[in-house]
Specification:
heterodimer; A: 210 residues; mainly alpha; Arp2/3 complex 21 kDa subunit ARPC3; two-stranded antiparallel sheet; B: 212 residues; alpha+beta; Immunoglobulin-like; 4-stranded antiparallel beta sheet; 3-stranded antiparallel beta sheet; 4 helices; 43% helix
Chain lengths: 210, 212
């Protein structure tokens, strides 16, 4: 789920969308870095590596193939630091795997990081619920919502750029509906595990500056 | 030490990620779609395929010259194949668009195209050979040779070479395990750099206290 280099730069609307993507990413990364603490650096690198590796592994699904993105988990653990983490991971994907390029990096980062932060804002308190079942369910919802929001934003970016995408967007969205439960499951297992062994990992500061 | 604990966690994750990468990395492909084309009997034949070689039906293929002017357009059939008739002898840049931002490119070099085509306006990529007084290698003679009995014997070879080139193109696009490990290495390096700068900031902050 990324927009290829050169796919949008043909039209004025596409250039505007790319510019907006870069602006959002610059702002988000600035906020994320400002809040980044010495102790949290390894977590950012850890989640960045996880995202980088897992989204390069395709899962064949009928005629197409999808991949996990884990942006729900990235958001829950990192909060605003999701922006720098995803920016680094997507930059390396563009460099090494040819997924996207310099003009689309901003938009691709924003498309993945915005859902991460939305999920974080909605669920970061909920995953501290007293019962483990509730934590599991909230984290499941967080993971599933993260990938679906990402797919919707991706489709919206293409639509705003005036691409005729309707036919494919339906299929892509359906593919992500299939992947969403898996994202949810992995996120839920990871969050329940983290809550048990390292609860402090789920305590990314929301608005507090240190 | 929370930092030491985090680093231990990080190493654990790196091991898991490396394991996952080892498991699946070899099958990953750099681009979600690929396009490949070759010239046969004076026409450009091509294929659009997804990861693992699955053909993509209905992709739009636009042919562009080096200046970006459109040379032709076609749509891939149910097997992802398409055919274009070259009109000029210049590099044909084929851009396949499967929608949803999935794009791929492949350039057919001008020297694969029949020499009898018009040389492509003001930028002939190579000296044109049409009526050059070369005794043995005029295009007509070459065409004649291609139809001779010797060529018939080699007929299968052409197909095999095309198959090889397609495999090569697929291999070139493939993402290998070391790429994934390399990327994780870069991220760890960046972590080190940020530790350094955050550490400097922290030391500067704590210095006045140490003096007092």
């Amino acid at each position: 789920m990324h927009i290829a280099e050169g796919a949008l730069s043909g039209s004025a609307a596409g250039v505007a969308v790319l510019g907006a993507g870069w602006a959002a990413t610059a702002l988000g990364t600035a906020i994320g870095l400002r809040r980044l603490d010495y102790e949290r650096v390894p977590q950012v690198a850890l989640l960045s590596s996880a995202f980088f590796a897992i989204s390069l592994i395709p899962i064949p699904l009928g005629v197409t193939s999808v991949h996990l993105v884990l942006c729900g988990l990235v958001g829950l653990v990192l909060g605003w630091a999701a922006f720098p983490a995803l920016l680094v991971a997507l930059f390396l994907q563009a460099l090494i795997a040819g997924a996207g390029g310099p003009t689309t990096l901003g938009l691709n980062t924003a498309v993945m990081a915005a859902p991460a932060i939305a999920v974080y804002a909605i669920f970061h308190r909920a995953v501290h619920a007293r019962s483990e079942t509730a934590t599991f369910l909230f984290a499941f919802a967080a993971g599933a919502l993260g990938v679906l929001l990402g797919a919707v934003l991706n489709a919206a970016a293409l639509a705003l750029s005036g691409k005729e995408f309707q036919v494919v967007a339906g299929a892509a969205l359906a593919a992500h509906l299939v992947i969403a439960p898996f994202e949810g499951l992995i996120t839920a297992v990871a969050v329940v595990f983290l809550r048990k062994v390292r609860p402090e990992l789920l305590d990314a500061p929301l608005l507090a500056t240190h | 030490m929370p930092a030491a604990r985090s680093i231990r966690n990080l190493l654990r994750l790196a091991a898991v990620a490396a394991g996952v990468g080892l498991f699946a990395g070899s099958g990953a492909q750099a681009h979600s779609i690929s396009v490949f084309a070759y010239v046969e009997d004076g026409a450009i034949h091509g294929e659009v395929f997804a990861r693992g070689g699955t053909p993509i039906a209905g992709a739009t293929i636009t042919a562009l010259d080096p200046d970006g002017a459109k040379l032709g357009e076609t749509t891939a059939d149910a097997e992802g194949r398409f055919t274009l008739t070259p009109t000029r002898r210049c590099p044909w840049r084929l851009v396949a668009d499967a929608g949803e931002g999935h794009r791929a490119e492949y350039t057919v070099p001008s020297d694969e195209l029949p020499a009898s085509l018009p040389g492509g306006g003001e930028q002939p990529p190579e000296p044109a050979v049409p009526e050059a007084p070369q005794p043995a290698a005029t295009p007509a003679a070459a065409d004649g040779a291609r139809k001779g009995p010797a060529f018939d014997a080699l007929g299968g070879l052409d197909k095999q070479v095309i198959g090889l080139r397609r495999d090569l193109e697929q291999l070139r696009q493939e993402l290998r395990f070391q790429d994934i490990v390399g990327g994780i290495g870069y991220i760890l390096g960046l972590m080190g750099v940020s530790f350094y700068f955050l550490g400097v900031r922290r030391r500067e902050r704590s210095l006045p206290k140490a003096d007092a």
